[in-house]
Amino acid sequence: MFISEAFAQAVAPAAGPAGGLDQLQQFLPFVLILVVFYFLMWRPQAKKAKLHKEMVSQLRRGDKVILQSGIHGTVNKVIDEAVVLVEIAENVKVRVSRNAIGDVQAKTEPVAAAKDEPSSAEDDKK
């Protein structure tokens, strides 16, 4: 009914220096899974979030945007660092959080760059 001590000692694994290697072999698959998740999920998401934040911070008046809801519009006014005024139809303007902007379709040229370039009418006079 009871297991003899000799049989129990023969079945029990020997504790020794190989025990540390055994633990490392059991822990290694978890480390590999975390590394794969980092390169396949976390890193691309962080990169995408960084690009989106940069894109949204560079919004200017006249930029054609698509909101995350799918509505197309034009940035009419940048109110502050968190809110922009988007014109979604003629005389229909909506205050939108910058984070609600999903994509910028067309960027406008900076005003300073447009003033520096001579117009074609001025070129014709010369």
What does it look like?
This protein is of the alpha+beta class and 126 residues long. It has two domains: 16-53; 59-116, Roll (SH3 type barrels), CATH 2.30.30. The chain has helices at 5-11, 18-57, 111-116, 120-125, and strands at residues 64-67, 72-78, 83-89, 92-97, 101-106.
Features:
4 helices; single chain; SH3 type barrels; 126 residues; 5 strands; 5-stranded antiparallel β-sheet; alpha+beta
Question: How do the strands and helices of this protein lay out in sequence?
Answer:
Layout: H1 5-11, H2 18-57, E1 64-67, E2 72-78, E3 83-89, E4 92-97, E5 101-106, H3 111-116, H4 120-125
Antiparallel strand pairs: 1-2, 1-5, 2-3, 3-4
Task: Give a short summary of the structure.
This protein has four helices and five strands; from the N terminus they run ααβββββαα. It has 126 residues and is an alpha+beta fold. It folds into two domains: 16-53; 59-116, SH3 type barrels (Roll), CATH 2.30.30.
Number of self-contained structural domains: 2
What is the CATH top level name of the largest domain?
A: Mainly Beta
User: What's the tally of helices?
Assistant: 4
Helix-strand makeup class: alpha+beta
Q: Tell me the β content.
A: 15-25%
- Pattern of helices and strands: HHEEEEEHH
Q: How can the largest sheet be summarized?
A: 5 strands, antiparallel
> What is the helical fraction, as a range of percent?
40-55%
The strand count comes to 5
Lateral arrangement of strands in the main beta sheet? 4-3-2-1-5
